[in-house]
Write a structure and sequence with these properties.
The protein is mainly α. It contains five helices and no strands. Helix 3 packs across helix 5 (93-110) and helix 4 (69-88) packs antiparallel against helix 5 (93-110). It starts with 8 loop residues before the first helix and ends in a 7-residue tail after the last helix. The model has no long low-confidence stretch (mean pLDDT 89).
Length: 117
């Protein structure tokens, strides 16, 4: 049995994303997307292929509007997962930087002073 220390950071990221998906209702489209994302292989190229256009969209203000509590919880979990993976990816500074950007966006999205009731 593998221990956490033996697991590749991208494998752990996928596992964490899969766990975040279960904060959402089964019929929620975001849950389906997160489950698909969690199925990516532990290869930097696969993650960069998904992450790069997503970050470009966010830079242009085209990120999702999230207000539902369960979505906020999922994005909080995603931020923690992305930050942990970024810290552990010593050998891939470009992917680590992308994951840090994604984590910052997730944390900005769930911060309490964004005017939600």
């Amino acid at each position: 049995m593998r221990t956490t220390a033996d697991t590749h950071p991208l494998t752990r990221l996928a596992e964490d994303i899969h766990a975040a998906a279960f904060l959402l209702e089964p019929a929620d489209p975001l849950r389906g997307y997160l489950v698909m994302l969690a199925s990516l292989p532990a290869e930097a190229g696969a993650w960069e292929e998904i992450l790069t256009p997503w970050l470009d969209d966010l830079r242009h203000g085209e990120g999702p509007a999230v207000t539902a509590r369960e979505h906020l919880a999922a994005f909080g979990a995603l931020g923690v997962a992305a930050l942990r993976a970024a810290r552990e990816l010593d050998g891939d500074p470009a992917l680590a930087a992308g994951l840090r950007s994604a984590a910052r966006w997730c944390f900005w999205l769930v911060k309490p002073d964004r005017g939600r009731a």
